[in-house]
Protein backbone atom coordinates (compact mmCIF):
# COMPACT_ATOMS: atom_id res chain seq x y z
CA UNK A 1 0.00 0.00 0.00
CA UNK A 2 1.12 3.55 -0.76
CA UNK A 3 -0.53 6.98 -0.50
CA UNK A 4 0.39 9.97 -2.68
CA UNK A 5 -0.60 13.64 -2.47
CA UNK A 6 0.72 16.67 -4.28
CA UNK A 7 1.45 19.90 -2.45
CA UNK A 8 -1.64 21.56 -3.95
CA UNK A 9 -3.70 19.20 -1.79
CA UNK A 10 -4.73 16.64 -4.41
CA UNK A 11 -4.56 12.95 -3.64
CA UNK A 12 -3.42 10.83 -6.57
CA UNK A 13 -2.98 7.18 -7.45
CA UNK A 14 0.71 6.28 -6.87
CA UNK A 15 0.43 3.65 -9.62
CA UNK A 16 -0.33 6.32 -12.26
CA UNK A 17 2.34 8.39 -14.08
CA UNK A 18 2.58 11.97 -12.73
CA UNK A 19 6.08 13.34 -13.38
CA UNK A 20 6.87 14.87 -16.78
CA UNK A 21 9.89 13.48 -18.62
CA UNK A 22 11.32 17.02 -18.76
CA UNK A 23 11.11 17.55 -15.00
CA UNK A 24 14.60 18.61 -13.89
CA UNK A 25 14.57 15.94 -11.20
CA UNK A 26 14.35 13.33 -13.95
CA UNK A 27 16.78 15.13 -16.28
CA UNK A 28 19.41 16.19 -13.72
CA UNK A 29 18.54 14.88 -10.29
CA UNK A 30 17.90 18.56 -9.50
CA UNK A 31 15.80 18.72 -6.37
CA UNK A 32 15.69 17.80 -2.71
CA UNK A 33 13.87 15.39 -0.43
CA UNK A 34 13.19 14.33 3.13
CA UNK A 35 12.23 10.93 4.51
CA UNK A 36 10.11 11.07 7.66
CA UNK A 37 9.29 8.09 9.89
CA UNK A 38 5.66 7.82 10.99
CA UNK A 39 4.80 5.75 14.07
CA UNK A 40 1.27 5.48 15.47
CA UNK A 41 0.09 8.01 12.90
CA UNK A 42 2.56 10.64 14.17
CA UNK A 43 5.39 11.90 11.97
CA UNK A 44 8.61 11.92 14.00
CA UNK A 45 10.79 15.06 13.95
CA UNK A 46 8.54 16.75 11.37
CA UNK A 47 9.69 20.24 12.44
CA UNK A 48 13.42 19.44 12.03
CA UNK A 49 12.67 17.68 8.71
CA UNK A 50 10.83 20.74 7.35
CA UNK A 51 13.58 23.02 8.64
CA UNK A 52 16.17 20.91 6.82
CA UNK A 53 14.02 20.90 3.66
CA UNK A 54 14.09 24.71 3.78
CA UNK A 55 17.85 24.66 4.35
CA UNK A 56 18.44 22.29 1.42
CA UNK A 57 16.15 24.46 -0.76
CA UNK A 58 18.19 27.52 0.12
CA UNK A 59 21.47 25.72 -0.70
CA UNK A 60 20.07 24.78 -4.15
CA UNK A 61 18.50 28.23 -4.75
CA UNK A 62 15.05 26.64 -4.94
CA UNK A 63 11.99 28.72 -3.97
CA UNK A 64 11.41 28.71 -0.22
CA UNK A 65 9.15 25.73 0.58
CA UNK A 66 5.59 26.60 1.71
CA UNK A 67 5.84 25.22 5.24
CA UNK A 68 2.09 25.17 5.93
CA UNK A 69 1.32 23.48 2.63
CA UNK A 70 3.83 20.72 3.45
CA UNK A 71 2.28 20.24 6.89
CA UNK A 72 -1.23 20.09 5.37
CA UNK A 73 -0.12 17.59 2.73
CA UNK A 74 1.58 15.39 5.33
CA UNK A 75 -1.69 15.35 7.34
CA UNK A 76 -3.73 14.63 4.21
CA UNK A 77 -1.57 11.61 3.38
CA UNK A 78 -1.54 10.36 6.97
CA UNK A 79 -5.35 10.61 7.15
CA UNK A 80 -5.38 7.86 4.51
CA UNK A 81 -2.79 5.66 6.23
CA UNK A 82 -3.72 3.09 8.93
CA UNK A 83 -2.19 4.54 12.10
CA UNK A 84 -1.27 1.11 13.53
CA UNK A 85 1.22 0.57 10.67
CA UNK A 86 4.54 2.41 10.52
CA UNK A 87 5.33 4.16 7.26
CA UNK A 88 8.03 6.24 5.61
CA UNK A 89 6.93 9.59 4.20
CA UNK A 90 8.98 10.85 1.31
CA UNK A 91 8.75 14.60 0.73
CA UNK A 92 10.06 15.45 -2.75
CA UNK A 93 10.66 18.98 -4.06
CA UNK A 94 12.15 19.32 -7.56
CA UNK A 95 13.19 22.33 -9.62
CA UNK A 96 10.23 21.67 -11.92
CA UNK A 97 9.94 21.45 -15.68
CA UNK A 98 12.96 22.26 -17.88
CA UNK A 99 12.79 25.26 -20.23
CA UNK A 100 10.29 27.33 -18.22
CA UNK A 101 11.71 30.70 -17.06
CA UNK A 102 10.52 30.44 -13.45
CA UNK A 103 9.62 26.78 -13.12
CA UNK A 104 7.17 25.78 -10.39
CA UNK A 105 8.71 23.05 -8.25
CA UNK A 106 7.13 19.63 -8.49
CA UNK A 107 6.24 18.74 -4.91
CA UNK A 108 4.64 15.68 -3.40
CA UNK A 109 4.40 13.47 -0.32
CA UNK A 110 4.44 9.68 -0.74
CA UNK A 111 3.78 7.25 2.11
CA UNK A 112 5.20 3.72 1.79
CA UNK A 113 5.55 0.75 4.12
CA UNK A 114 8.91 0.18 5.82
CA UNK A 115 10.93 -2.40 3.89
CA UNK A 116 11.63 -5.79 5.42
CA UNK A 117 15.39 -5.36 5.11
CA UNK A 118 15.24 -2.25 7.28
CA UNK A 119 13.04 -3.88 9.92
CA UNK A 120 15.48 -6.79 10.09
CA UNK A 121 18.51 -4.46 10.32
CA UNK A 122 16.89 -2.58 13.23
CA UNK A 123 16.74 -5.84 15.18
CA UNK A 124 19.85 -7.68 14.01
CA UNK A 125 22.29 -4.91 13.10
CA UNK A 126 24.31 -4.61 9.91
CA UNK A 127 27.68 -5.38 8.41
CA UNK A 128 29.40 -2.20 7.17
CA UNK A 129 32.40 -1.33 5.01
CA UNK A 130 34.30 1.95 5.05
CA UNK A 131 34.58 3.61 1.63
CA UNK A 132 36.52 6.65 0.46
CA UNK A 133 34.26 9.65 -0.30
CA UNK A 134 37.10 11.67 -1.85
CA UNK A 135 36.41 14.85 0.07
CA UNK A 136 38.41 16.53 2.80
CA UNK A 137 36.77 17.95 5.92
CA UNK A 138 37.30 21.58 4.79
CA UNK A 139 35.69 21.13 1.38
CA UNK A 140 32.09 21.87 2.38
CA UNK A 141 32.99 25.35 3.56
CA UNK A 142 35.42 26.01 0.68
CA UNK A 143 33.08 24.84 -2.09
CA UNK A 144 29.39 25.39 -1.24
CA UNK A 145 28.40 24.63 -4.86
CA UNK A 146 29.18 20.96 -4.19
CA UNK A 147 26.04 20.98 -2.00
CA UNK A 148 27.67 18.82 0.66
CA UNK A 149 25.16 18.60 3.48
CA UNK A 150 22.08 19.21 1.29
CA UNK A 151 19.61 16.33 1.06
CA UNK A 152 19.51 16.48 -2.72
CA UNK A 153 17.96 14.04 -5.20
CA UNK A 154 21.41 13.45 -6.77
CA UNK A 155 22.01 10.20 -4.90
CA UNK A 156 23.50 8.03 -7.66
CA UNK A 157 26.85 8.02 -5.80
CA UNK A 158 25.18 7.09 -2.51
CA UNK A 159 23.34 4.22 -4.22
CA UNK A 160 26.55 3.07 -5.97
CA UNK A 161 28.27 2.91 -2.59
CA UNK A 162 25.52 0.57 -1.39
CA UNK A 163 26.15 -1.73 -4.37
CA UNK A 164 29.89 -1.67 -3.67
CA UNK A 165 29.12 -2.70 -0.07
CA UNK A 166 27.04 -5.62 -1.41
CA UNK A 167 29.95 -6.67 -3.67
CA UNK A 168 32.11 -6.75 -0.56
CA UNK A 169 29.54 -8.85 1.28
CA UNK A 170 28.28 -6.03 3.50
CA UNK A 171 24.97 -4.23 3.88
CA UNK A 172 25.92 -0.63 4.45
CA UNK A 173 28.69 1.94 4.21
CA UNK A 174 30.54 4.49 6.32
CA UNK A 175 32.18 7.13 4.14
CA UNK A 176 35.66 8.37 5.06
CA UNK A 177 37.23 11.70 4.16
CA UNK A 178 40.65 11.81 2.45
CA UNK A 179 42.35 12.36 5.83
CA UNK A 180 40.67 9.24 7.26
CA UNK A 181 38.09 11.11 9.31
CA UNK A 182 34.61 9.65 9.57
CA UNK A 183 31.86 11.29 7.50
CA UNK A 184 28.46 9.53 7.40
CA UNK A 185 26.62 6.67 5.74
CA UNK A 186 25.06 7.11 2.27
CA UNK A 187 21.69 7.67 4.01
CA UNK A 188 22.58 7.76 7.70
CA UNK A 189 24.70 9.35 10.41
CA UNK A 190 27.40 7.62 12.44
CA UNK A 191 27.17 7.47 16.23
CA UNK A 192 29.89 6.01 18.46
CA UNK A 193 29.37 5.08 22.12
CA UNK A 194 32.30 5.06 24.51
CA UNK A 195 31.56 4.60 28.22
CA UNK A 196 28.51 6.78 28.89
CA UNK A 197 29.31 9.24 26.09
CA UNK A 198 27.96 9.39 22.54
CA UNK A 199 29.93 10.95 19.69
CA UNK A 200 28.98 12.04 16.17
CA UNK A 201 30.98 14.15 13.69
CA UNK A 202 30.03 17.81 13.13
CA UNK A 203 27.88 18.65 10.07
CA UNK A 204 30.44 21.32 9.07
CA UNK A 205 32.70 18.59 7.56
CA UNK A 206 30.22 18.18 4.71
CA UNK A 207 27.63 15.77 6.07
CA UNK A 208 23.92 16.01 6.68
CA UNK A 209 22.80 17.12 10.15
CA UNK A 210 20.64 14.09 11.08
CA UNK A 211 17.24 14.49 12.73
CA UNK A 212 17.50 10.94 14.13
CA UNK A 213 21.02 11.48 15.48
CA UNK A 214 19.71 14.62 17.21
CA UNK A 215 16.73 12.71 18.66
CA UNK A 216 18.98 9.88 19.88
CA UNK A 217 21.24 12.43 21.56
CA UNK A 218 18.22 14.11 23.19
CA UNK A 219 16.95 10.79 24.49
CA UNK A 220 20.41 9.69 25.68
CA UNK A 221 20.95 12.96 27.57
CA UNK A 222 17.64 12.46 29.36
CA UNK A 223 18.83 8.96 30.28
CA UNK A 224 22.01 10.39 31.81
CA UNK A 225 24.43 10.09 28.90
CA UNK A 226 26.87 12.77 27.79
CA UNK A 227 26.87 13.68 24.08
CA UNK A 228 29.65 15.22 22.02
CA UNK A 229 29.78 16.50 18.48
CA UNK A 230 33.38 16.20 17.41
CA UNK A 231 35.51 14.74 14.59
CA UNK A 232 35.94 10.94 14.61
CA UNK A 233 38.75 8.89 13.07
CA UNK A 234 38.77 5.35 11.66
CA UNK A 235 40.33 4.22 14.94
CA UNK A 236 37.21 5.44 16.77
CA UNK A 237 35.14 3.08 14.61
CA UNK A 238 37.06 0.13 16.08
CA UNK A 239 37.82 1.39 19.59
CA UNK A 240 34.39 1.91 21.20
CA UNK A 241 31.56 0.30 23.15
CA UNK A 242 29.06 0.53 20.32
CA UNK A 243 28.92 1.72 16.70
CA UNK A 244 25.61 2.75 15.16
CA UNK A 245 23.99 4.14 12.03
CA UNK A 246 21.07 6.50 12.64
CA UNK A 247 18.40 7.61 10.19
CA UNK A 248 14.67 8.12 10.19
CA UNK A 249 13.58 4.74 8.86
CA UNK A 250 16.39 2.58 10.26
CA UNK A 251 16.18 4.37 13.67
CA UNK A 252 19.34 3.42 15.62
CA UNK A 253 20.86 0.41 13.87
CA UNK A 254 23.83 -1.39 15.37
CA UNK A 255 26.95 -2.14 13.30
CA UNK A 256 28.04 -5.69 14.19
CA UNK A 257 30.77 -6.09 11.57
CA UNK A 258 33.18 -3.48 10.20
CA UNK A 259 35.33 -4.14 7.12
CA UNK A 260 34.91 -7.88 7.65
CA UNK A 261 35.89 -7.80 11.32
CA UNK A 262 33.25 -8.70 13.88
CA UNK A 263 32.88 -5.99 16.54
CA UNK A 264 32.39 -6.80 20.26
CA UNK A 265 28.73 -7.41 21.08
CA UNK A 266 27.08 -4.05 21.80
CA UNK A 267 23.59 -5.47 22.17
CA UNK A 268 23.06 -4.14 25.69
CA UNK A 269 24.21 -0.61 24.79
CA UNK A 270 22.01 -0.73 21.70
CA UNK A 271 18.97 -1.83 23.73
CA UNK A 272 19.48 1.01 26.21
CA UNK A 273 19.94 3.68 23.54
CA UNK A 274 17.08 2.36 21.40
CA UNK A 275 14.83 2.66 24.46
CA UNK A 276 16.11 6.18 25.22
CA UNK A 277 15.28 7.12 21.61
CA UNK A 278 11.76 5.61 21.77
CA UNK A 279 11.15 7.38 25.11
CA UNK A 280 11.53 10.71 23.28
CA UNK A 281 8.13 9.92 21.70
CA UNK A 282 6.49 8.22 24.71
C1 LIG B 1 18.80 11.31 5.26
C2 LIG B 1 20.24 11.21 5.51
C3 LIG B 1 20.77 11.10 6.80
C4 LIG B 1 19.92 10.85 8.04
O1 LIG B 1 19.02 11.87 8.32
P1 LIG B 1 17.73 11.63 9.22
O2 LIG B 1 17.17 12.98 9.39
O3 LIG B 1 18.19 11.05 10.51
O4 LIG B 1 16.84 10.68 8.49
C5 LIG B 1 22.16 11.16 6.95
N1 LIG B 1 22.98 11.29 5.89
C6 LIG B 1 22.50 11.36 4.62
C7 LIG B 1 23.45 11.49 3.48
C8 LIG B 1 21.13 11.32 4.40
O5 LIG B 1 20.66 11.39 3.13
Structure explained in plain terms:
This protein has 282 residues and is α+β, with helices and mostly antiparallel strands. The protein has 2 domains: 3-114, D-amino Acid Aminotransferase, Chain A, domain 1 (2-Layer Sandwich); 119-279, D-amino Acid Aminotransferase, subunit A, domain 2 (D-amino Acid Aminotransferase, Chain A, domain 2), CATH 3.20.10.10. The chain is 31% helix and 26% strand. The protein is built from 9 helices and 14 strands. It has helices at 24-28, 46-59, 67-79, 116-124, 139-142, 156-167, 211-222, 234-238, 267-279; strands at 3-6, 11-12, 31-39, 42-43, 87-94, 107-113, 126-132, 172-176, 189-194, 197-200, 226-229, 242-247, 251-258, 261-262. Strands 7, 8, 9, 10, 11, 12, 13 and 14 form an 8-stranded mixed beta sheet that branches. Strands 2-1-6-5-3-4 form a 6-stranded antiparallel beta sheet. A hairpin with a 2-residue loop joins strand 13 and strand 14. Helix 7 (211-222) packs across helix 9. The radius of gyration is 19 Å and the shape is globular. The model has no long low-confidence stretch (mean pLDDT 97). Residues 35, 151, 184, 187-189, 208, 210-213, 246-248 line the site of pyridoxal-5'-phosphate.
Summarize the structure.
With 282 residues, the chain is an alpha+beta fold. It has two domains: 3-114, Aminotransferase class 4, branched-chain amino acid transferase, N-terminal domain (D-amino Acid Aminotransferase, Chain A, domain 1), CATH 3.30.470; 119-279, D-amino Acid Aminotransferase, subunit A, domain 2 (D-amino Acid Aminotransferase, Chain A, domain 2). 31% of the residues lie in helices and 26% in strands.
